[in-house]
Write a structure and sequence with these properties.
single chain; 760 residues; alpha/beta; ten-stranded mixed beta sheet; 24 helices; 11% strand; disordered N terminus; binds adenosine-5'-triphosphate; ATP-binding; DNA binding; membrane
Length: 760
């Protein structure tokens, strides 16, 4: 009961009440008898016995007896109610569901119909104005197509003339129209009277019958419109609104703030409108104008958007006067427009056209997911055969494993300090050592123990900076040049020609794969130390002993199984001469500070086509390398580079792998290269995805490799798109060429396999 409520009904006192009332009389102080429990206030009863006894607190008593306390209590209740109401309202209004529902309502009731009206207005302007002609003329002018420009100019003039004549017709027409109306009316009356006369003669009606019938019909129409006009109006308006809503909903441009939830914030899939809007807002005027003036709002620039790994991919054909490089230079802006970070946006410019670019956009945060462990850490991994296997360095951003062919390739890996260069480089050398036939000469010019696990495995191990070590490293390079020359001589003396094969390079053959590795190589080329035998060690000219030796190795060592692997911090012209940089076939870079350093690390071609180690995040993308593998690896779609998240192998784990490599060498009997036989037809049938009609040959090669695993030699590094096509031709599987790419037909694969199975 509220404190101000009263119960006017007299209540019958119970025995206990009476007993109590007999002890406590009104006006009597009861303090003494009740001090232990509570203060008893006598209720203001004027006469008669107490009808009820109740224990109340001081506050309750005030509420029962004081008007002011009751008013204060009421106000407090109002305040609490108001605060609760405000809180509930705020929660409800700011709740995600309310926002979504609000956006849904506004989108469907306002944004779509208005957008649809915009489309109709644009179409109307196009149909009735000169804007279409002007747009086409501007486009032709941009394309430099003068014939088309003149043609559209002529059409524009003709259309303007036609429109002028129509306007003049309207000026002249009122008198003509009035005359015509009068003539038609008189004619109609005469006709109806004639008809009436015939009917009257025939005794079938009155003379004015037909005229009366026409008047009745007109009266009925007026009545119908007056009676049902409201329905017609509402029906027509609803149909019109539905038409505008549908037009607005299906146009490719986003409705901005009103857009459905999947196209703002944490975007998972790309939609054409998002890509077009992101391109439009890049700040390239020509691109923006081309999109705005396009009847399709720029959607025609895009191919179908497809899922690829943990992201989506789309091919973009830019309008004339816009180049892929212009867009790639605005990587950060584009990434921001797509609600992504720069490293989550990958470009591959088509080798065939400056205006074609493939854009891959990672799902938000997908590139920060944990990588699987390196296969090298599996205690059962190895021994490897570098003639057969590829090095499982990591996975590319699209989630495909990257296997690097390191045989007869020189390699350069660069990166800013503390980005994981040593770890990424060391995993390569660990893998090489898991082939018992590989030999290693190693110089670590930092000497912090990062490479000490190779003691016992490396025939030469130099650790530490300082003049002595620079001299020793320079000697090591020159010794490698001498070894190279000796191998050539021996090979010639043996009367052999052509490549050195696996059988020729077994341990003890003298042609074992030799890997000459220098970590922190920039110190060597940047040093100002003179060799005791004369000449500078560092420098970038012809006088530099180290640079001369490196160049000689790059030029000729590959063919005789001598490899040069360099790992360098921030390369500059001073510490990594161009003649040394350019000789490496495989080039890779971790995060570097600027595009110009990226160019030194990876070369102009890779950066020009979109490779961007400078777009990686310092510290966050440790171990992520942008790889330009040259011809050592078939990249899908003929790409020049890929981004690899390398598997991390810690220093302790590196010791375990090195121990395993040592054990393999102890029982060095070269294992036979036995490969399980696989069936290409079955494998091809397995790698086509449901609904795929045809797939590029190089994509199939990647998929087959993934299917068979890194140890299956037949799908190893020599298994290229060309090889696959040859095998398909032998099996009579249909291959087609389109836009410069080769495609294998899935239908043909299944048909050939079905025929084979039936004949078996
Ligand atoms: N792939 C990786 N994932 C996570 N952390 C890594 C990865 N690679 C390296 N790191 C960590 O980054 C730190 C630096 O690694 P590393 O020594 O390999 O870098 P660096 O580029 O060689 O540095 P510096 O050139 O200064 O020697 C190490 O503490 C290592 O634990």
């Amino acid at each position: 009961m509220a404190p101000t409520d009263h119960d006017d009904e007299p209540t019958t006192p119970t025995g206990a009440d009476l007993h109590e009332s007999s002890r406590v009389q009104p006006g009597e102080s009861t303090t003494e008898s009740t001090t232990e429990l509570a203060t008893v206030h006598p209720l203001p009863v004027t006469s008669g016995p107490a009808i009820e006894g109740e224990l109340v607190s001081e506050e309750e008593w005030r509420l029962l007896t004081s008007q002011r306390a009751q008013a204060a209590w009421r106000y407090q209740q109002y305040r609490e109610n108001a605060v609760a109401l405000a809180r509930v309202t705020r929660t409800a209004v700011t709740h995600d569901r309310t926002k979504r529902a609000g956006k849904f309502l506004l989108r469907n009731s306002v944004a779509y119909p208005f957008a649809g009206a915009g489309v109709v207005a644009k179409r109307w302007r196009d149909m009735h104005g000169a804007s279409r002609y002007e747009r086409m003329m501007r486009q032709a002018e941009r394309d430099g197509n003068h014939d088309r420009l003149l043609e559209w100019e002529a059409r524009d003039v003709a259309e303007k003339q036609r429109r002028h004549e129509r306007v003049m017709d309207w000026v002249r027409s009122p008198i003509v129209l009035a005359k015509a109306a009068l003539l038609y009316s008189v004619g109609a009356v005469v006709l109806l009277l004639t008809l009436g006369f015939i009917l009257w003669i025939a005794g079938k009606g009155s003379m004015l019958g037909p005229i009366e019938a026409i008047v009745d019909a007109i009266a009925f129409c007026i009545w119908f419109v007056m009676a049902y006009g409201a329905f017609l109006l509402v029906g027509g308006s609803v149909a019109m609104l539905a038409y505008l809503w549908n037009l607005g909903r299906t146009r490719p441009q986003s409705t901005g703030w009103f857009a459905p939830p999947e196209v703002v914030g944490e975007v998972v899939n790309l939609t054409p409108s998002i890509v077009v809007a992101a391109l439009r807002d890049l700040g390239i005027r020509v691109l923006r104008d081309a999109i705005k003036s396009d009847a399709d709002f720029g959607a025609r620039m895009l191919s179908m958007i497809t899922r690829y790994g943990p992201g989506s991919q789309v091919e973009i054909t830019l309008p004339p006067q816009v180049t892929a490089s212009q867009v790639m230079n605005l990587r950060e802006t584009l990434a921001g427009n797509l609600d992504r970070k720069a490293h989550e946006v990958q470009f591959e410019r088509s080798p065939d056209s400056e205006r074609q670019v493939t854009l891959w956009v990672a799902d938000s945060g997908a590139l920060d997911r944990k990588l699987p462990d390196s296969p090298l850490l599996d205690p059962d991994f190895g021994p490897v055969d570098i003639y057969r296997d590829t090095m499982p360095w990591g996975v590319d951003v699209k989630g495909d494993p990257v296997g690097l062919n390191l045989l007869q390739q020189h390699l350069l890996l660069c990166g800013l300090s503390k980005q994981g260069k040593t770890a990424a480089a060391r995993s390569l050398v660990l893998w090489l050592m898991l082939d018992p036939s590989s030999r290693l000469w190693l110089a670590d010019l930092k000497g912090f123990g990062d490479w000490s696990m190779f003691e016992g495995l490396a025939e030469i191990l130099i650790e530490g900076a300082g003049a002595e070590n620079f001299i020793a490293t320079s000697d090591m390079l020159e010794a490698a040049v001498a070894e190279m020359a000796a191998r050539y001589e021996r090979w010639r003396a043996m009367g052999r020609k052509g490549d050195i094969g696996r059988e020729d390079s077994l341990p003890g053959s003298g042609f074992e794969p030799l890997f000459v590795v220098v970590d922190e190589v920039q110190k060597l080329f940047g040093c100002a130390v003179e060799h005791p035998d004369g000449g500078d060690i560092g420098g970038n000219g012809k006088k530099s002993r180290a640079a001369r030796a490196a160049q000689a190795l790059h030029d000729q060592a590959r063919a005789v199984n001598v490899h040069f692997l360099e790992f360098s911090q921030n390369p500059t012209n001073a510490n990594l001469p161009a003649i040394v940089r350019e000789g490496a076939m495989i080039r890779a870079s971790l995060y570097v500070g600027t595009e110009s350093i990226a160019r030194m690390a990876l070369g102009e071609a890779a950066v020009d086509t979109g490779a961007a180690p400078h777009a990686l995040r310092a510290g966050l993308d440790r171990g992520t390398v942008v790889l330009a593998p040259g011809e050592s690896m078939d990249l899908p779609n003929g790409a020049t580079h890929t981004t690899v998240r390398t598997h991390f192998i810690s220093t302790e784990q590196a010791y375990d792998v090195a121990e395993r490599a040592t054990a393999f060498r102890q029982n060095v009997a070269q294992r036979a290269v036995v490969a399980d036989e696989r069936d290409l037809l079955d494998d091809l049938a397995a790698v086509f995805e449901i609904g795929e009609d045809q797939v590029k040959d190089t994509d199939l090669v990647s998929r087959l490799r993934k299917l068979a695993g890194p140890n299956y030699a037949s799908y190893g590094k020599r298994f290229t798109g060309t090889r696959l096509r040859d095998l398909c031709s032998e099996l009579e599987i249909e291959i087609k060429r389109r836009n410069g790419y080769w495609y294998v037909s899935s239908h043909s694969v299944f048909t050939v396999r079905g025929a084979r199975d039936a004949s078996e």
